[in-house]
Write a structure and sequence with these properties.
The complex is a heterodimer of chains A (117) and B (218).
Chain A: H1 4-20, E1 26-35, H2 42-53, E2 62-68, E3 70-73, E4 80-83, E5 98-100, E6 105-114
Parallel strand pairs in A: 1-2
Antiparallel strand pairs in A: 1-6, 3-4, 3-5
Helix pairs in contact in A: 1-2
Chain B: E1 6-15, H1 18-33, E2 37-43, H2 49-60, E3 66-72, H3 77-83, E4 89-93, H4 102-109, E5 119-123, H5 130-133, E6 140-146, H6 153-156, H7 158-163, E7 166-170, H8 182-192, E8 198-200, H9 209-217
Parallel strand pairs in B: 2-5, 2-6, 3-4, 3-5, 6-7, 7-8
Classes of the chains: A alpha+beta (117), B alpha/beta (218).
């Protein structure tokens, strides 16, 4: 699946990575962190990444997506845990614990294969 | 790793949409300096964004000085509809783009006589996901849901619900005819955003528009 929502993010990221990539060397890995609130699918991001980097200087680089999950807090029993989805029941029986998530979308690091000087 | 080379990890922490956000900040400063209140209207295709704006512009006639930027993939139909009620309408054709970006708004603002405006509506492309993540420089994000979309739309689009300064629930006149559970919709919204006001409106009958106009005037 080539997610349309992910495609524009991948395009912006590719431009950003090309700005940061050193002239000597090859970008091997790109690491981003994404808050669950963004609703982005890591697999769709990776597919979009392949498509938008194809034929560019950063083609073949690997996109690593650190997807930060939802935090769920149950006001009935006080338990907190993480979940990939926001609407979940608590084991204590509370049908609607409170979900919170971040909306961060950050480029975290580049890994470069340097050419020998 | 290439033979004889080495691998280096370069730590960065930079927002992926930094370039967009910088243009949005310029837009925001310009609109604030001129005292123009701006609304980014986000809703699904068919939720009634254009119909709501038609009714709103009609109600604001002689009371406020609005302008409208309207994003659409291909046609000029929405812009033509809105131009009947407002002198300053700019259609932004996004082509393949499923959302507006800050530079498109900046360019469109250049086509408006901003001295003659005190209220700016930005009708985003019909989509409940991408538009939320792209700051345009607006003062407020307004999420538009409608009864015909079903009562689970808020739960399925948590980013819009969380980010919205106001939610409008359109086509409320159809409530007796649909299985839409109004309290379930609101319960989902409240879990994600305890404070956001929810206004029930009908763009076609005019129900609830007074409260929406009052919110715009605040």
């Amino acid at each position: 699946m080539l997610g349309v929502h992910e495609f524009s993010i991948a395009e912006a990221l590719a431009a950003q990575v090309q700005r940061h990539a050193p002239a000597a060397g090859r970008v091997r890995e790109v690491e981003i962190s994404v808050g669950a609130l963004r609703g982005l699918e890591p697999e769709a991001l990776r597919m979009s990444w392949e498509a938008v980097t194809h034929g560019t200087a950063i083609a073949g680089s690997i996109l690593n997506v650190d997807l930060r999950p939802w935090s769920i807090a149950c006001s009935t029993c006080g338990r907190t845990w993480t979940s990939p989805v926001p609407f979940v029941a608590c084991a204590c029986g509370d049908p609607a614990p409170v979900p919170t998530a971040g909306d961060e979308l950050n480029l975290v690091s580049l890994t470069i294969d340097e050419e020998e000087a | 790793m290439p033979e004889g080379g080495r691998t280096t990890r370069i730590p960065l922490v930079e927002r992926v949409l930094e370039a967009n956000d910088q243009v949005a900040a310029v837009n925001r400063a310009e609109l604030e300096r001129r005292g123009i209140f701006s609304v980014d209207l986000i809703g699904a295709p068919g939720s009634g964004k254009t119909a709501l704006l038609e009714s709103t512009l009609r109600a604001l006639k002689g009371h406020r000085r609005p302008a409208v930027l309207v994003g659409d993939l291909a046609t000029r139909r929405d812009g033509d509809r809105l131009a009947r009620w407002c002198d300053q309408v700019v259609q932004i054709s996004t082509g393949q783009g499923c959302h507006l970006e800050a530079n498109q708004v900046r360019d469109a603002l250049g086509q408006i006589d901003l001295d003659a405006v005190d209220l700016l509506f930005i009708e985003n492309v019909g989509n409940l996901i991408c538009p939320v993540g792209f700051d345009l420089g607006q003062a407020a994000k307004v999420g538009l849901f409608s009864l015909t979309e079903g009562d689970d739309k808020a739960a399925k689009h948590p980013y819009l619900v969380e980010a919205a300064d106001l939610l409008l629930l359109n086509k409320i006149d159809l409530l007796p005819h649909l299985s839409f559970d109004r309290s379930s919709f609101e319960a989902d919204v409240r879990l994600l955003n305890p404070r956001v006001p929810i206004l029930d409106v009908s763009a076609t009958t005019g129900q609830g528009l007074d409260a929406w106009i009052t919110w715009l005037d605040r």
